[in-house]
Amino acid sequence: MTRDEVLNRVTGLIREILDDETVVLNETTSAPDVPGWDSFNNINLMIAVEKAFAVSFRAHEIEALRNVGELLDMIERKLPNA
Amino acid sequence: MDLWLPPPPAEFRERLQTFAAANPAARLDGLAALASHNLSPAQTRLLAKAAVEAMEQVPADGLASSGYVKVPIRIMAEWTADHLLAPLVVAGLRRRLLLDIATGDYGSLHQSLLAPPEGQLPRFILFLLDVDRRLESVNTIGDAGASAQWVENEMAEIDKLALRATEHWQATPVFHNYISLGGNMFGNHDTAIGTGPAARARSMNAALSGAAAGGGLLTWDLAGLAADIGRRGLIDARLWHHAKMLISPDAAALAADQLAALLGAALGRSRKVLVLDLDNTIWGGVIGDDGIEGIRLGQGSAEGEAFSAFQRYVKSLRSRGVVIAVASKNTHEICTAAIRQHPEMILKMDDFACFRANWDNKADNLIDIAKHLNLGLDSFVFFDDSPAERQLIRQELPMVAVPEAPADPSFYIDCLAGSHFFDAVSLSAEDLQRNEQYLGNEKRRALSNETRDLSGFLRSLDMTITIRGFNGLDLVRITQLINKTNQFNLTTRRYTEADVRAFGDDPATVVLSARVRDKFGDNGLISVVIAKPVAGEGLSIDTWLMSCRVLARDVEKALMKALVDAARRRGAGFLLGYYAPTAKNKMVESFYKDQGFAPYREAEAPPAGATWWRLDLTDYAEPTIAANMEIVE
Q: Strand ranges (DSSP E) for B63-133?
C-alpha cells in the first residue's frame, strides 16, 4: 500500500466519522484544523483506523500523535511487509 | 460485535433522506425500520441525529396514537458515555421508545442530583459509576471484615442516590453492575479466597441484585454482557485510561441495546409472544418431504442436538410466561402428527397457544394469531430460518420484531436471548401460569361454540370473581398490569410500585383488583381499578384496566358494583370516569356509556378525543352477573 493510498483511506474514515464529505487531509493537517475533529471523534478515528488496517495502537502512541503525517507513519510502521 | 439484526440496506442514506419529508409518525416508522439493522457507528450517529429531529417535530399528544412513547432520561456519569448516546437513541427507536437523553455534569454526582430539577422530570436516572476507582479505593486483601464493610458502604451510597432519584425526581434509578478491570488477585480461587477487588465486585453485584429484586432500582447487567462477549471486548483498557470510556465503542451497540431493553421492560414494552416456524426452526429438515423418521431432532446428530437445545429453551421461555405460537407453511395434520409422535419432541401441542400450519401467507397467519390471542402484533417476535419469510414479515408487519436467525441452529438460543425482546424486571405468579390460561381459553372457546347465548355460556363456566382492596402481596402483579395493559385500559397511566403502594396506603383512595377462576383454571389477577376522591363528595376513576384474556366475562360489571359499594361507604355521591384514547384502546371507547355513565364534558387537555363521564350513584342499576362474586376486604 502506498502512502497516498493510506492517506486516502484515512481521509475516507474521518469523512465518515464527521459525516462531512468535504474534509481534505494532508501530511501537516492536525485535529484543530478540521471542524468537529475533537478528542471524542479522535478516539472514534483511532478505532476505525485500527479496524480498517488491522493494526493496533498503544495508548501512549495515540497520545503522542501531532498530525496526520505522524498517524500515517505509525500505520505504515505497523502494516505487515511495509 | 454485531446485534442479531440484518445488515443495513445499501440505500441507507437515501432512505434516511426520504423520510425527512414524511409526516412525523411516518418518519418515525421509517427510521424505526432502519434502526432494526446492524448499523456502522457512522450510520448509527446519522440515524440518531435524524431520530432526535423527528422526535422534536412530534407534538406532545401525537405520540401515543402512533405507538411511540417519549421517555426522558437523565444520565449522571462518572465516566465518558458520549459514544453511547447515539446507539442508545437507535436501540430505543428499535423498541418504539423515543429516548430523550439529558446529561448531567461529568463527575459531580451528588451535586447534580441535589440541583432542583427544571422542566420535565426524567422517567429514569442512569447512574454511570466509576466502578474501577471505587473498587480500587481500598485494599482489603485478607480482611473479610473490611471487604464486607466496603460493600456495605458502597451499597449505602447507592441506596442514598436511588432514594434521592425516587423521591426528589420521581425517577426510576438505573445502576450498571460492577466489573473489576484488574482485580483477580488469586486466579481460579479468587472468589473462594475472597477479599480481592474482583471478589468484592461480585459481592457488590449480589447486593445490587437484591436491591433490584426489592424494586428500588434497575440493574443494567454489564457483568452479564462481559461474561457473554468477553470483558476485554466490553472494556478496552486503553480507552479507559485514555478517555475514561468504560464501554468500548466496539461494544456500544450491544450495551445500548441491552440497556434499552431494560428500560423497555420496566415500561412494560417487552414482547409477549414468540411465533415459530417449524421446518429447520424447531427441527432439522422438511417434515413434508423427510417424514417423521427423516427430520433431525435429538441425539444422533449435532444438528439434532442443537434443535433439541433450542426446543428446551423455548419451553423455558414458555414456563416463564412467554406465549408460544406456530406459523408454518405446511400441512396441518403432518405437523401435528410429528409433534405428537416424534419421541425426541420436547415441545408438545399443549405448549402452543395457537398453531397455524397451512399454505397461507405468513403475514396473514400472524394477523390471525394476534386476533385469536387478543394481543397486539407489536408484542410479537417472529423466528424463522427462512430469510424470505423474515423479509416478508419485516415489510408487511413492521411492528413485529424479527431477529436475524443465524444459519447454524446451534446459535438460535444466543440469537433469541441476545435480542432481549422478552426481558422482564419481575416475575409474577400469573407469568408462570400464562400458557395454561391461554390453553384454558382455547377450551372455553370450544365450549362457547357449543353454547349459543352468552349468559348461558358464562354460567356454564362456573366462574368466581374475587375482588379485593389493596394488598401488598399483589403489588408486583398490579404494577405489572398497570405498565403493560394497552387495550382494555381507559387512561393508560403508568405507575411504579412505590406509586401503587402510596395509593394503597391512602385511605381516601380506592384500589381494587379482581381475580377470575372457572372450571378450566385460574386466570389470576386480571383487573385493576384506582379511584381518587374529588371535590363535591365524589370519586374519580384514575385507572381502570383489564387483561384481554377475560373479555366479556362480566368482570367489569362485578368491579363496578364493588366500586359503587366502596364509594357509598365513603359517602360519595357520584363517580367520574375519564377515557383517554391511544392507538390501542379503542375497544373501551364506549366503556363508561355501556356502564350507564352519562357524558359529562369534553376534556380540555390533550389527547384529542378524551372524554369525561359521570354516574350519580342514585342512578346505578345493579346488573346481573353470571358469576359468583367474592369480596375480600
A: 69-77, 97-103, 124-128
Q: Check if A64 contacts B (Cβ < 8 Å).
A: no
pLDDT bracket for residue B416 (50, 70, 90): very high
Q: Which three cell numbers stand for residue A19?
A: 459525516
Q: Contact, B484 vs B530, CB < 8 A? A: no
Residue B558: its pLDDT value, please? 93
Measured between beta carbons, the chain B residues lying within 8 angstroms of A17 are: 41-42
- The alpha-carbon gap from A47 to the nearest alpha carbon of chain B, in Å, equals 8
Q: Does any CB of chain B come closer than 8 Å to the CB of residue A60?
A: no
A47 lies within 8 A of chain B by CB: yes
Out of B42, B241, B248, the one facing A19 most closely (by C-beta) is B42
CA distance A17 to chain B (A): 6
Query: All 3 cell numbers of residue B345?
Result: 419432541
Report the pLDDT value the prediction gives residue B68, as an integer from 0 to 100. 87
Report the alpha-carbon distance of residue B323 to residue B327 in Å, rounded.
Answer: 13
In chain B, what are the domains?
A: 12-266 (3.40.50.1110), 273-418 (3.40.50.1000), 463-632 (3.40.630.30)
Which ranges of B492-552 does DSSP label H, i.e. alpha helix? 497-505
Which residues does chain A have within 8 Å of residue B45's beta carbon, measured at their own beta carbons? 19
CA distance A12 to chain B (A): 12
- pLDDT tens digits, residue range B336-372? 999 999 999 999 999 999 999 998 899 999 999 999 8
| Tens of pLDDT, residues A47-56 | 889 988 989 8
**Which position has the higher pLDDT, B26 or B7?**
B7
**CATH number for the domain running over A3-78:** 1.10.1200.10
